[in-house]
Amino acid sequence: SIMPATLAAISNSAKKGVLFKGGVHAENVSHVKAIAFDKTGTLTNGKPVVTDVYFQSDTDKERIIAIAGAIEKESTHPLAHAITTYSLKQQEINSIHVQEMKTISGNGVSAYVDNQKWEIGRAAFVGEKDALTFHDGIASTLANEGKTVVFVKVEDQIVALFALKDTLRKDTIKSIKALKKQGIHTVMLTGDNKVTAKAIASETGIDQYIAECLPEEKVNYVKELGERFENVAMVGDGINDAPALASADVGIAMGEGTDVALETADVVLMKNDLSKITNAISMSNRMNRVVK
Ligand code: ADP
Ligand code: MG
Protein backbone atom coordinates (compact mmCIF):
# COMPACT_ATOMS: atom_id res chain seq x y z
CA SER A 1 0.00 0.00 0.00
CA ILE A 2 1.09 3.55 -0.64
CA MET A 3 2.00 5.91 2.22
CA PRO A 4 -0.06 9.12 2.51
CA ALA A 5 3.12 11.23 2.33
CA THR A 6 4.09 9.46 -0.90
CA LEU A 7 0.65 9.94 -2.37
CA ALA A 8 0.70 13.64 -1.50
CA ALA A 9 4.15 14.04 -3.04
CA ILE A 10 3.11 12.28 -6.25
CA SER A 11 0.00 14.37 -6.60
CA ASN A 12 1.90 17.62 -5.93
CA SER A 13 4.53 16.68 -8.49
CA ALA A 14 1.84 15.94 -11.08
CA LYS A 15 0.49 19.46 -10.62
CA LYS A 16 3.98 20.75 -11.34
CA GLY A 17 4.34 18.70 -14.50
CA VAL A 18 6.24 15.64 -13.24
CA LEU A 19 4.26 12.42 -13.50
CA PHE A 20 5.47 9.51 -11.34
CA LYS A 21 4.07 6.14 -12.32
CA GLY A 22 4.32 4.79 -8.77
CA GLY A 23 5.53 5.50 -5.25
CA VAL A 24 8.71 3.52 -5.64
CA HIS A 25 9.88 5.80 -8.46
CA ALA A 26 9.16 8.93 -6.42
CA GLU A 27 11.34 7.39 -3.73
CA ASN A 28 14.14 6.27 -6.08
CA VAL A 29 14.72 9.63 -7.72
CA SER A 30 16.51 10.98 -4.64
CA HIS A 31 19.11 8.19 -4.87
CA VAL A 32 20.17 9.03 -8.41
CA LYS A 33 23.89 9.85 -8.68
CA ALA A 34 24.26 10.00 -12.45
CA ILE A 35 21.93 10.92 -15.30
CA ALA A 36 22.35 9.93 -18.94
CA PHE A 37 20.55 12.12 -21.49
CA ASP A 38 19.70 11.31 -25.05
CA LYS A 39 20.68 14.28 -27.23
CA THR A 40 18.14 14.74 -30.01
CA GLY A 41 14.69 15.65 -28.70
CA THR A 42 15.88 15.58 -25.10
CA LEU A 43 18.73 18.08 -24.64
CA THR A 44 17.79 19.63 -27.97
CA ASN A 45 14.38 20.55 -29.34
CA GLY A 46 14.65 17.69 -31.80
CA LYS A 47 13.73 19.94 -34.70
CA PRO A 48 16.88 20.19 -36.77
CA VAL A 49 16.94 22.28 -39.91
CA VAL A 50 19.09 21.94 -43.01
CA THR A 51 21.74 24.69 -42.97
CA ASP A 52 24.13 23.64 -45.75
CA VAL A 53 24.07 21.36 -48.78
CA TYR A 54 27.11 20.31 -50.86
CA PHE A 55 27.07 18.33 -54.09
CA GLN A 56 29.55 16.11 -55.87
CA SER A 57 28.89 17.91 -59.16
CA ASP A 58 26.76 20.74 -60.54
CA THR A 59 24.49 18.45 -62.51
CA ASP A 60 21.43 16.79 -61.05
CA LYS A 61 21.28 18.95 -57.90
CA GLU A 62 17.49 19.36 -58.07
CA ARG A 63 16.92 15.67 -58.67
CA ILE A 64 19.15 14.69 -55.74
CA ILE A 65 17.32 17.06 -53.39
CA ALA A 66 13.96 15.79 -54.60
CA ILE A 67 14.85 12.09 -54.25
CA ALA A 68 16.46 12.58 -50.84
CA GLY A 69 13.29 14.37 -49.74
CA ALA A 70 11.06 11.62 -51.12
CA ILE A 71 13.05 8.84 -49.42
CA GLU A 72 13.21 10.64 -46.08
CA LYS A 73 9.47 11.31 -46.25
CA GLU A 74 9.03 7.64 -45.29
CA SER A 75 11.21 7.97 -42.17
CA THR A 76 10.06 9.33 -38.80
CA HIS A 77 13.56 10.45 -37.75
CA PRO A 78 13.83 14.20 -36.96
CA LEU A 79 16.73 14.51 -39.43
CA ALA A 80 14.55 12.89 -42.10
CA HIS A 81 11.75 15.34 -41.43
CA ALA A 82 14.18 18.26 -41.82
CA ILE A 83 15.49 16.96 -45.13
CA THR A 84 11.97 16.44 -46.51
CA THR A 85 10.92 19.93 -45.39
CA TYR A 86 13.99 21.43 -47.08
CA SER A 87 13.35 19.45 -50.24
CA LEU A 88 9.66 20.40 -50.43
CA LYS A 89 10.57 24.09 -50.31
CA GLN A 90 12.18 23.77 -53.70
CA GLN A 91 11.01 20.58 -55.36
CA GLU A 92 7.94 18.62 -56.26
CA ILE A 93 8.53 15.13 -54.85
CA ASN A 94 5.21 13.33 -55.32
CA SER A 95 6.15 11.87 -58.68
CA ILE A 96 9.17 10.03 -57.24
CA HIS A 97 8.58 6.34 -56.77
CA VAL A 98 10.48 5.09 -53.70
CA GLN A 99 10.86 1.32 -53.33
CA GLU A 100 12.18 -1.01 -50.62
CA MET A 101 12.73 1.77 -48.13
CA LYS A 102 14.62 0.46 -45.09
CA THR A 103 15.64 2.11 -41.83
CA ILE A 104 19.01 1.11 -40.43
CA SER A 105 18.72 2.17 -36.81
CA GLY A 106 21.42 4.62 -35.70
CA ASN A 107 22.77 4.84 -39.24
CA GLY A 108 20.32 6.06 -41.82
CA VAL A 109 18.00 4.82 -44.53
CA SER A 110 18.25 3.00 -47.84
CA ALA A 111 15.83 2.73 -50.75
CA TYR A 112 15.61 2.10 -54.48
CA VAL A 113 14.62 4.79 -56.98
CA ASP A 114 14.70 4.04 -60.73
CA ASN A 115 16.49 0.76 -59.95
CA GLN A 116 19.33 2.56 -58.25
CA LYS A 117 20.25 2.07 -54.62
CA TRP A 118 20.18 5.22 -52.52
CA GLU A 119 21.62 5.41 -49.02
CA ILE A 120 21.29 8.43 -46.74
CA GLY A 121 23.02 8.51 -43.39
CA ARG A 122 26.08 8.99 -41.28
CA ALA A 123 29.69 8.75 -42.50
CA ALA A 124 30.25 5.22 -41.20
CA PHE A 125 27.10 4.12 -43.02
CA VAL A 126 28.11 5.44 -46.46
CA GLY A 127 31.83 4.71 -46.06
CA GLU A 128 33.95 6.73 -43.68
CA LYS A 129 36.90 7.29 -46.05
CA ASP A 130 34.85 8.74 -48.93
CA ALA A 131 32.72 10.71 -46.50
CA LEU A 132 35.69 12.40 -44.84
CA THR A 133 37.35 13.40 -48.11
CA PHE A 134 34.12 14.64 -49.73
CA HIS A 135 34.54 18.32 -50.70
CA ASP A 136 38.03 18.54 -49.15
CA GLY A 137 36.78 17.36 -45.78
CA ILE A 138 33.98 19.92 -45.40
CA ALA A 139 32.19 17.47 -43.06
CA SER A 140 34.63 18.06 -40.21
CA THR A 141 34.32 21.85 -40.51
CA LEU A 142 30.52 21.55 -40.32
CA ALA A 143 30.69 19.08 -37.43
CA ASN A 144 32.90 21.48 -35.47
CA GLU A 145 30.02 23.95 -35.71
CA GLY A 146 27.85 21.40 -33.89
CA LYS A 147 26.06 20.40 -37.09
CA THR A 148 25.00 16.84 -37.89
CA VAL A 149 26.27 15.75 -41.27
CA VAL A 150 24.29 13.33 -43.41
CA PHE A 151 25.58 11.91 -46.69
CA VAL A 152 23.65 10.87 -49.79
CA LYS A 153 25.11 7.93 -51.68
CA VAL A 154 23.87 6.55 -55.00
CA GLU A 155 25.16 3.05 -55.75
CA ASP A 156 28.81 3.47 -54.73
CA GLN A 157 29.24 7.21 -54.97
CA ILE A 158 28.58 10.01 -52.48
CA VAL A 159 26.62 12.63 -54.41
CA ALA A 160 25.66 15.10 -51.71
CA LEU A 161 25.97 16.16 -48.10
CA PHE A 162 23.37 17.79 -45.89
CA ALA A 163 24.36 19.63 -42.71
CA LEU A 164 21.66 20.03 -40.10
CA LYS A 165 21.55 22.06 -36.91
CA ASP A 166 19.33 21.49 -33.93
CA THR A 167 18.92 23.99 -31.07
CA LEU A 168 19.24 23.31 -27.35
CA ARG A 169 16.01 23.38 -25.34
CA LYS A 170 15.71 26.69 -23.54
CA ASP A 171 16.23 25.11 -20.10
CA THR A 172 19.03 22.65 -20.99
CA ILE A 173 22.06 24.71 -19.87
CA LYS A 174 20.37 25.81 -16.65
CA SER A 175 19.20 22.27 -15.83
CA ILE A 176 22.59 20.63 -16.38
CA LYS A 177 24.20 23.29 -14.21
CA ALA A 178 21.68 22.69 -11.40
CA LEU A 179 22.14 18.91 -11.53
CA LYS A 180 25.93 19.22 -11.44
CA LYS A 181 25.55 21.51 -8.42
CA GLN A 182 23.53 18.75 -6.73
CA GLY A 183 26.58 16.50 -7.25
CA ILE A 184 25.02 14.47 -10.05
CA HIS A 185 27.24 13.21 -12.87
CA THR A 186 25.71 14.15 -16.25
CA VAL A 187 26.31 12.37 -19.56
CA MET A 188 25.03 12.91 -23.11
CA LEU A 189 24.44 9.83 -25.29
CA THR A 190 24.18 10.40 -29.01
CA GLY A 191 24.36 8.62 -32.32
CA ASP A 192 26.11 11.68 -33.72
CA ASN A 193 29.80 11.58 -34.60
CA LYS A 194 32.45 12.63 -32.05
CA VAL A 195 33.11 16.09 -33.43
CA THR A 196 29.44 17.16 -33.54
CA ALA A 197 28.83 15.56 -30.14
CA LYS A 198 31.77 17.41 -28.60
CA ALA A 199 30.57 20.78 -29.94
CA ILE A 200 27.06 20.25 -28.58
CA ALA A 201 28.24 18.79 -25.26
CA SER A 202 30.34 21.87 -24.68
CA GLU A 203 27.35 24.14 -25.44
CA THR A 204 25.36 22.30 -22.74
CA GLY A 205 28.13 22.20 -20.11
CA ILE A 206 27.50 18.49 -19.54
CA ASP A 207 30.23 16.45 -17.72
CA GLN A 208 30.73 13.78 -20.36
CA TYR A 209 29.51 12.65 -23.78
CA ILE A 210 29.39 9.35 -25.60
CA ALA A 211 29.25 9.74 -29.39
CA GLU A 212 28.37 7.25 -32.14
CA CYS A 213 26.25 5.44 -29.60
CA LEU A 214 23.94 2.93 -31.29
CA PRO A 215 20.54 2.37 -29.62
CA GLU A 216 21.61 -0.97 -28.13
CA GLU A 217 24.81 0.63 -26.88
CA LYS A 218 22.76 3.15 -24.90
CA VAL A 219 21.60 0.23 -22.75
CA ASN A 220 25.17 -0.97 -22.16
CA TYR A 221 26.28 2.50 -21.33
CA VAL A 222 23.48 2.99 -18.79
CA LYS A 223 24.47 -0.32 -17.16
CA GLU A 224 28.10 0.74 -17.05
CA LEU A 225 27.12 4.02 -15.39
CA GLY A 226 25.09 1.96 -12.93
CA GLU A 227 28.24 0.11 -11.90
CA ARG A 228 30.12 3.36 -11.36
CA PHE A 229 27.36 5.35 -9.71
CA GLU A 230 24.95 2.78 -8.28
CA ASN A 231 21.75 4.69 -9.05
CA VAL A 232 21.30 5.96 -12.57
CA ALA A 233 18.55 7.76 -14.41
CA MET A 234 18.14 7.90 -18.17
CA VAL A 235 16.23 10.70 -19.89
CA GLY A 236 14.98 10.19 -23.43
CA ASP A 237 12.20 10.69 -25.93
CA GLY A 238 12.59 8.20 -28.78
CA ILE A 239 11.63 4.62 -29.57
CA ASN A 240 15.40 4.08 -29.65
CA ASP A 241 15.67 5.16 -26.03
CA ALA A 242 13.09 2.74 -24.64
CA PRO A 243 15.51 -0.12 -23.85
CA ALA A 244 17.86 2.29 -22.05
CA LEU A 245 14.93 3.85 -20.14
CA ALA A 246 13.94 0.35 -19.03
CA SER A 247 17.44 -0.60 -17.90
CA ALA A 248 18.03 2.56 -15.82
CA ASP A 249 17.05 2.66 -12.13
CA VAL A 250 14.80 5.56 -13.08
CA GLY A 251 13.63 6.01 -16.68
CA ILE A 252 12.48 9.54 -17.46
CA ALA A 253 10.59 10.36 -20.65
CA MET A 254 9.98 13.71 -22.28
CA GLY A 255 6.22 14.40 -22.42
CA GLU A 256 6.20 14.90 -26.17
CA GLY A 257 8.25 11.74 -26.67
CA THR A 258 7.08 8.69 -28.61
CA ASP A 259 4.45 6.40 -27.06
CA VAL A 260 6.98 3.63 -26.48
CA ALA A 261 9.23 5.96 -24.46
CA LEU A 262 6.26 7.23 -22.44
CA GLU A 263 5.08 3.70 -21.70
CA THR A 264 8.53 2.42 -20.72
CA ALA A 265 9.48 5.32 -18.46
CA ASP A 266 8.93 5.51 -14.68
CA VAL A 267 8.61 9.28 -14.73
CA VAL A 268 7.24 11.63 -17.41
CA LEU A 269 8.20 15.31 -17.74
CA MET A 270 4.86 16.53 -19.03
CA LYS A 271 6.05 19.89 -20.39
CA ASN A 272 9.41 18.57 -21.65
CA ASP A 273 10.98 20.75 -19.00
CA LEU A 274 14.37 19.33 -17.95
CA SER A 275 14.60 21.75 -15.03
CA LYS A 276 11.80 19.73 -13.42
CA ILE A 277 14.29 16.91 -12.77
CA THR A 278 15.99 18.93 -10.00
CA ASN A 279 12.55 19.70 -8.51
CA ALA A 280 11.71 16.00 -8.60
CA ILE A 281 14.93 15.15 -6.75
CA SER A 282 14.27 17.75 -4.03
CA MET A 283 10.69 16.52 -3.70
CA SER A 284 11.88 12.93 -3.41
CA ASN A 285 14.43 13.91 -0.72
CA ARG A 286 11.73 15.67 1.31
CA MET A 287 9.31 12.80 0.86
CA ASN A 288 11.85 10.19 1.94
CA ARG A 289 12.60 12.16 5.11
CA VAL A 290 8.90 12.19 5.99
CA VAL A 291 8.25 8.54 5.08
CA LYS A 292 11.35 7.07 6.77
P1 ADP B 1 20.42 10.70 -32.56
O1 ADP B 1 19.43 10.12 -31.59
O2 ADP B 1 21.59 11.32 -31.89
O3 ADP B 1 19.80 11.59 -33.59
P2 ADP B 1 20.44 8.23 -34.13
O4 ADP B 1 20.99 7.05 -33.41
O5 ADP B 1 18.98 8.28 -34.36
O6 ADP B 1 21.04 9.49 -33.37
O7 ADP B 1 21.17 8.37 -35.54
C1 ADP B 1 22.58 8.42 -35.62
C2 ADP B 1 23.04 9.04 -36.92
O8 ADP B 1 22.58 8.23 -38.01
C3 ADP B 1 22.47 10.42 -37.19
O9 ADP B 1 23.26 11.42 -36.59
C4 ADP B 1 22.51 10.46 -38.71
O10 ADP B 1 23.80 10.79 -39.15
C5 ADP B 1 22.19 9.03 -39.10
N1 ADP B 1 20.75 8.84 -39.36
C6 ADP B 1 19.87 8.16 -38.60
N2 ADP B 1 18.64 8.15 -39.17
C7 ADP B 1 18.75 8.87 -40.31
C8 ADP B 1 17.85 9.23 -41.37
N3 ADP B 1 16.56 8.88 -41.38
N4 ADP B 1 18.34 9.96 -42.38
C9 ADP B 1 19.63 10.33 -42.40
N5 ADP B 1 20.52 10.03 -41.46
C10 ADP B 1 20.11 9.30 -40.43
MG1 MG C 1 15.97 11.49 -29.13
From TrEMBL:
Keywords: ATP-binding, Cell membrane, Ion transport, Magnesium, Membrane, Metal-binding, Nucleotide-binding, Phosphoprotein, Translocase, Transmembrane, Transmembrane helix, Transport. The keyword Metal-binding applies. It is found in: Cell membrane; Membrane. This is Cd2+/Zn2+-exporting ATPase. Belongs to the cation transport ATPase (P-type) (TC 3.A.3) family. Type IB subfamily. Coiled coil: none annotated. The keyword Nucleotide-binding applies. The lineage of its organism: Bacteria, Bacillati, Bacillota, Bacilli, Bacillales. It comes from the Bacteria.
